[in-house]
Write a structure and sequence with these properties.
Helices cover 75% and strands 4% of the residues. A three-stranded antiparallel β-sheet has the order 1-3-2, with helices on one face. The chain is mainly alpha-helical.
Length: 454
């Protein structure tokens, strides 16, 4: 963080805290609901899945609209509104005596879809060259919150019950609101909307982009598998005579071990420029993990399956957004990431629904056989994807008044060595470039833009 200025450091830490406290509350339900929800009226395997995944439906629906709203009324206001809905949902679930009201609470929690607004504010508060570092800090905080939730969830549920988990979630959300109100810096500038938020006119094009659709389908399946797995996993651990309050003794070493394997793989994949090969290997690891779970008859079998699963999950969770950012057309990264985020949350909803439905009809173990089949479908889809060469994104101000001038300037810029894509937005008077840093000469592009501006 030594190259970040004081404002960027403050923004990175504060926004990471907002994101991680909120996600911690969402994740803590995963390892405990299937066990501690049994006393709720209407409890069944189907409703386990619905309650676990319900937040994903409203997140998927409202993610992009909340981002647009933040551009109209301000990032802070939307973040406080979303967190207020999250608090309301947590309170509803904490007071619930039936699984139906818990599910309603989860729906309200998901309605606080502030991810787009948080990331847009992070972009507003950071310089272009430092922005990836701030986004990485926020992303790392989400991974850390997941690891903490896997340990803290079972311990808290043992001490305070399921309602205690939701009350704690409400307190975390209130803390996040205080962070937004008093610690998160006010925006001093506005990053280009097309690079941070989904644009309505770009969404149709993104939905027709074959490579992006493969990545969107990938993150949907990844979170479908994660959510569906936790419909069954807590009960299977119980069947192996591992008390609920001791489940963290499985989750913690498994998550730590998965990072020890995952990080070297990512480094090797990047250094050898074999990202697609390692991507496919990790999708295959998910399939293998599901098959092991399907056949496991001992606790150590489940532990091995979890280790294999989280190696693949963590690798893919880190790789997918980076690939989306690289594949997205110049000037349309916001739209690409908006659809990607919605796909991620919709996958969580479908995973809960599918896991609950399969468990109700065929039992918990059958979930893993179904997930293995879905993983094989993803492997087939991923085998056809193309990984683009690494590119740098640049933004240059232009002063062109007609489409003809814009087209002429774009053609000249596209002819420069190292230029992969050019997008000129007349309304914004901005030119977006995707370039190969090794071949591209910035001075040449600047001179062309200066001539075009005359």
């Amino acid at each position: 963080m030594h190259q970040l200025n004081s404002l960027e450091k403050r923004a990175a830490i504060a926004l990471a805290l907002v994101f991680s406290t909120r996600m911690l509350g969402l994740f803590m339900l995963l390892p405990v609901f299937a066990l501690y929800g049994e006393q709720l009226v209407g409890f069944s395997p189907l409703w386990i899945g619905l309650a676990i995944g319900a937040y994903g439906l409203t997140q998927a629906i409202l993610q992009i609209p909340f981002g647009w709203l933040s551009d109209k009324i301000g990032r802070h206001k939307v973040m406080l509104l979303g967190l207020s809905l999250f608090v309301l949902g947590s309170v509803v679930a904490a007071l619930a005596e039936s699984v139906y009201m818990v599910t309603l609470g989860r729906v309200l929690q998901g309605a606080g879809a502030i991810a787009g607004a948080v990331l847009a504010l992070a972009a507003d508060l950071t310089r272009e060259e430092q922005r990836p570092k701030v986004m990485a800090i926020i992303g790392a905080s989400i991974g850390l919150s997941f690891a903490v939730a896997m340990v803290a969830g079972p311990l808290l549920a043992r001490w305070a019950g399921l309602s205690g988990v939701f009350w704690f979630t409400a307190v975390l959300a209130v803390c996040a609101m205080l962070i937004v109100a008093f610690l998160v810096p006010k925006s001093v500038s506005k990053a280009p909307m097309a690079e941070t938020l989904a644009l309505p006119q770009s969404l149709a094009a993104m939905l027709k982009h074959g490579q992006l659709l493969r990545l969107d389908a990938g993150v949907l399946i990844l979170h479908l598998m994660l959510t569906a797995m936790f419909v069954a996993l807590p009960a299977l651990l119980n069947q192996q005579h591992l008390a609920a309050e001791r489940h963290w003794q499985v989750y913690l070493p498994v998550l730590l071990g998965s990072f020890l394997f995952m990080v070297p793989m990512m480094i090797i994949a990047m250094r050898r420029q074999q990202e697609k090969r390692y991507f496919l290997i990790n999708v295959l690891l998910l399939v293998i993990a599901m098959l092991i779970c399907w056949q496991a008859t001992t606790l150590w079998g489940l532990v091995l399956a979890l280790l294999v699963f989280f190696i693949g999950f963590n690798f893919l969770e880190a790789s997918l957004p980076a690939m989306v950012s690289r594949v997205a057309p110049a000037g349309q990264r916001g739209s690409a990431m908006g659809i990607y985020s919605s796909s991620q949350f919709f996958g969580a909803f479908l995973g809960g629904l599918l896991g609950g439905a399969v468990a109700q009809q065929f039992g918990f173990v059958a979930i893993f056989a179904v997930l293995a089949g879905i993983g094989l479908v993803w492997l087939a889809i991923a085998s056809t994807m193309q990984v683009p060469s690494r590119a740098q994104r640049l933004l240059l101000p232009v002063a062109v008044t007609t489409e003809q001038q814009a087209a002429a300037l774009a053609a000249k810029l596209a002819a420069l060595a190292g230029v992969q894509e050019v997008t000129i937005l007349l309304a914004d008077q901005r030119c977006y470039l995707k370039v190969s840093a090794q071949q591209f000469e910035l001075a040449q592009a600047q001179s062309l833009v200066a001539v075009g501006n005359q």
